[in-house]
């Protein structure tokens, strides 16, 4: 594996230095922007402001580089501001800014759907576009409910998620999600939802590289839910092949196969939420390929445009799509969609990102780098307060012991110190640090990421 990323060219070095030397004015009044999933008051006292980016680096308004160890929010898989993606967006904006995809179409929407379908395994061959991961999961859940309706099995309305799952912030995704803070403020959510148990047990699996040996049998809880509710009331099960937002929980070995088998036995649809795992994060186009398990639908977002323009979607198996293609041909088959489904800018960015993934073999690159990444992550074992390190593909989650006074404070301090003092961006999820770099990360940068993390972990002890 080359030491430099595939695009480490002279042009890139020049672009990086101009990003570094430029400065950007910051508004005086930070108050009106109510920031999402942010400790607003703390941020506004000591902002972590980003003005520019190129490849693996962000730059602050003063031009200070910050190594992006999070691929943005698990999304800039090809690195930041890649020239072919920038050029494709610019050209598309000049050619066609918007056209509806309700009853009309534009060529790139069809081209992109074909490209995505070709990357997906088995007969996952129809793509429904959304603008985010949250819309993707709500769309998949609605397709599941509508599918059973058109099949004449309208009693199948129950949706099953999993404890510690994250499926975005729509009412559907929040309801099947299993992270308590994302749920407890928002009332009763959707009725008719149940949850599988989480698949993590620190005592049984701490410091495992890749998928843990323990936990396959946790899929059997689906049989218990079938016994409790009756299979004829259950529409679909949705799981992330690797739960990212909860701090990187890889699926236990055999778990997804077992879920698939139980779903098949009872005619339940299986949805993989691959908003994070899609587009190379685990070394394959989709995690479904890594695990050799074909779900009925795949939700995607983030990496489809390498984070450059919002886009998400659902890939459905042929049988699901075809079940809707009945009745008079002038009638809408699925009463669902978004104004910006398959927006031209997103389609252009998506096609350019898929070209980059293919031309630079970035999924293969992620796979080849995984052993080094795993070793580097595990090198932090033994540092003060490190309770567990999990890793799969190019992701790692490092659990730190909570401070006795404040749960989440040590993680917050680490994230803040990383940005201000060490020049690296990591995600602090409670007291877990999540790292997941662009797939263009070099071996030297992997070393740098974990060296820096080691320093931070010692400093917040
Ligand atoms: N499903 C999964 C599996 C996700 O990880 C969504 C759905 C929702 O996607 P949108 O595009 O609506 O945000 C996500 C999003 C984190 C973090 O905690 C993770 C996500 C988003 C923001 C932060 O690191 N995942």
Describe the structure.
By secondary structure, the chain is of the alpha/beta class. Helices cover 38% and strands 16% of the residues. The chain has two domains: 168 residues, Aspartate Aminotransferase, domain 1 (Alpha-Beta Complex); 273 residues, Type I PLP-dependent aspartate aminotransferase-like (Major domain) (Aspartate Aminotransferase, domain 2, 3-Layer(aba) Sandwich). It is built from 17 helices and 17 strands. The protein has a seven-stranded mixed sheet with strand order 4-12-11-10-7-5-6, sandwiched between helices. Strands 1-2-3-15 form a four-stranded mixed sheet. A hairpin with a 2-residue loop joins β16 and β17. α15 packs parallel to α17 and α16 packs across α17. The N terminus is likely disordered. The protein binds 3-[O-phosphonopyridoxyl]--amino-benzoic acid. The site of 3-[O-phosphonopyridoxyl]--amino-benzoic acid (PXG) has 20 residues, from α3, α6 and β16.
User: Looking at CATH, which topology of the largest domain would you report?
Assistant: Aspartate Aminotransferase, domain 2
**Domain module count:** 2
Order of strands in the sheet with the most strands?
4-12-11-10-7-5-6
Instruction: Please report the number of helical segments.
Output: 17
Number of strands: 17
N→C terminal distance: 35 Å
CATH superfamily of the largest domain: Type I PLP-dependent aspartate aminotransferase-like (Major domain)
What Rg do the Cα atoms give? 22 Å
> Biggest sheet, in brief?
7 strands, mixed
Structural class: alpha/beta
Residue share in helix = 25-40%
Ligand set: 3-[O-phosphonopyridoxyl]--amino-benzoic acid
CATH architecture assignment of the largest domain:
3-Layer(aba) Sandwich
């Amino acid at each position: 594996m080359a030491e430099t990323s595939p695009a480490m060219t002279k042009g890139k070095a020049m672009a990086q230095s101009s990003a570094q030397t430029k400065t950007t004015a910051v508004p005086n009044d930070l108050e009106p922007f109510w920031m999402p999933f942010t400790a607003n008051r703390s941020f506004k006292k000591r902002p972590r402001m980003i003005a520019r980016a190129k490849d693996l680096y962000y730059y602050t308004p003063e031009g200070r580089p910050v190594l992006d160890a999070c691929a943005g929010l698990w999304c800039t898989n090809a690195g930041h501001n890649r020239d072919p993606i920038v050029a494709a967006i610019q050209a598309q904006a000049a050619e066609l800014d918007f056209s509806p995809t309700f009853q009309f179409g534009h060529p790139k929407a069809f081209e992109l759907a074909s490209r995505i379908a070709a990357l997906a395994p088995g007969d996952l061959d129809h793509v429904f576009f959304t603008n985010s991961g949250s819309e993707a999961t709500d769309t998949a859940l609605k397709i599941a409910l509508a599918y059973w309706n058109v099949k004449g099995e309208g009693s199948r309305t129950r949706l099953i998620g999993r404890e510690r799952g994250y499926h975005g912030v729509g009412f559907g995704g929040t309801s099947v999600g299993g992270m308590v803070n994302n749920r407890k403020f928002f009332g009763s959510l959707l009725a008719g939802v149940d949850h599988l148990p989480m698949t993590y047990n620190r005592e049984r699996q701490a410091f495992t590289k890749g998928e843990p040996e323990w936990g396959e049998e946790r899929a059997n809880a689906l049989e218990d839910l079938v016994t409790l509710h009756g299979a004829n009331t259950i529409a679909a099960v949705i799981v992330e092949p690797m739960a990212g937002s909860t701090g990187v929980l890889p699926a236990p070995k055999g778990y997804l196969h077992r879920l698939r088998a139980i779903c098949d036995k009872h005619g339940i649809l299986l949805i993989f939420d691959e908003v994070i795992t899609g587009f190379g994060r685990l070394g394959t186009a989709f995690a479904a390929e890594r695990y050799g398990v074909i779900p009925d639908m795949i939700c995607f977002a983030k990496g489809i445009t390498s984070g450059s323009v919002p886009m998400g979607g659902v890939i459905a198996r042929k049988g699901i799509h075809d079940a809707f293609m009945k009745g008079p041909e002038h009638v809408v088959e699925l009463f669902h969609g978004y104004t910006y489904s398959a927006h031209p800018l997103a389609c252009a960015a998506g096609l350019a990102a898929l070209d980059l993934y293919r031309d630079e073999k970035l999924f293969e690159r992620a796979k080849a780098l995984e052993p080094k990444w795993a070793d580097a992550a595990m090198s932090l074992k033994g540092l003060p307060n490190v309770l567990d390190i999990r890793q799969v593909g190019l992701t790692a989650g490092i659990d730190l012991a909570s401070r006795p006074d404040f749960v989440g404070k040590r993680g917050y301090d680490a994230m803040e110190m990383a940005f201000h003092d060490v020049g690296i961006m990591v995600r602090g999820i409670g007291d877990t640090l999540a790292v997941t770099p662009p797939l263009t990360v070099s071996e030297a940068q992997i070393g740098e990421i974990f060296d820096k993390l080691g320093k931070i972990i010692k400093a917040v002890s």
